[in-house]
Amino acid sequence: MSESTGGDGQLGVGTLTLSSGENAPTTSRSLLGQRNFVVFWLGQTVSKLGNGAYQVALGWSVYQLTGSSAAMGVVLALNVLPQVIFALVGGAVADRLSRRRVIILSDSAAALGVGILAGLAAADLLSLPILMAAAVLLGTVSAFYGPAYAAMNRELLDQNEFRKANSFFSASGSLARLVGPMLAAGAYALGGAECVFAINAASFAIAAAAMTATKTSRRSPTNPSQGVRRELAGGWAYTRKTPWLVVIIAVSLVANILCLAPYSVLLPALVRLADGDIGTLSLLTTVEIAVVLLGALIIGRLRGIKAGTALLLLASSLGLGALVLGTLGSHLAMLFIGVMLFGAGLSFDVVENTLLQNLVPEHLLSRVYSVNMAISYSLLPLGYAFSGLIAGHLGPAFVLTTGGTLMLLTCGCAALTPVIKRLDSVRC
């Protein structure tokens, strides 16, 4: 890797390259032959499967207790808010301490919390306040877990393997979203919500055990004499002064609030407008997940991609998907095309994570992830709320068409910046 940076963290023009393109190909076998990566990846995949099942049982339990879809919105918001509030602290902790230890403690806390939830469900003591408390707990755990997890590739793999590893994680996450609901249905039929919650608790315990069995490279943590406040300021200052990070976070923020939030809220309404039913919605969700999985695997196998252009093309796919759904979503065939475009755009994370893991200094990596996470997620609750509210007055087509148009304009403006040309010199 050859990197030119100034004291302000900016990239040098045309001087940044990474040795992971044509010169250093990586095969699937090389990753799957590395014990520590495989143990970590499998443990986290099991955890994602448990989470996929948990989300289904959670939604069903909330509706059974309240009969209100609005209550589920409150539960989701209570899960996101702690992630926004505590993300910066979580990043500082992960950079200050052992990231491996942070993941072990986070997965263990989640296993304990969901295990207690399973016990309460078995005792028929489940209530909306308890589910809300569980949402807050898991959101808080995620605020610490997320920045540590996102930086683990730096401690497990060589730099030229990051993109393929990120494609593995993205693909396994998509597979978990596909299999998790089926697992939830079978477990719920056998033993009710408590059975699903118990499976999720066990999956967290397995992830913690896998992380315990994983050996990571030694690194130098941040200076413990620094206060947490100074460490938080360091991550924020580096992000603010690094133009390519500012552009990526801005694009992510716009995509979340104007495309992904409306898509999540309004897709069922579009299905009804197209005379579809729950089977249609389920099939659309399956198609989306399949495209995300395929996109992640393809990106993982490509060699020498232009990172800046790839990011904007994937983000533009989200905008185009929203535009298609907004203008032509009343036609069933166009619904599938729009959903496929969204699925393709969701591979954005593979390239984004690879760039961060390659370019951000080791001692700042978790804090920079936490800044990215806090800002990108900050307006999601508003996106969820206002998408439904505005659609109720002006219709889903207006919300999606406006969001898609603004997303494409954002990508067009970003393409005109020198940052994208600099990132295109990165072969990640």
Could you estimate the helical fraction of the residues in percent?
A: over 70%
Mean pLDDT: 82
Domains, number: 2
Output the CATH homologous superfamily of the largest domain.
MFS general substrate transporter like domains
* CATH class categorisation of the largest domain: Mainly Alpha
Q: What characterizes the major β-sheet?
A: none
The CATH architecture of the largest domain comes to Up-down Bundle
Task: Please give the radius of gyration in angstroms.
Answer: 21 Å
Order of helices and strands: HHHHHHHHHHHHHHHHHH
CATH topology (level 3) name of the largest domain: Growth Hormone, Chain: A
Give the count of helical stretches: 18
| Number of separate strands | 0
Low-confidence stretches: 1-29
N-end to C-end Cα span: 10 Å
Strand content: under 5%
Structural class: mainly alpha
Shape: globular
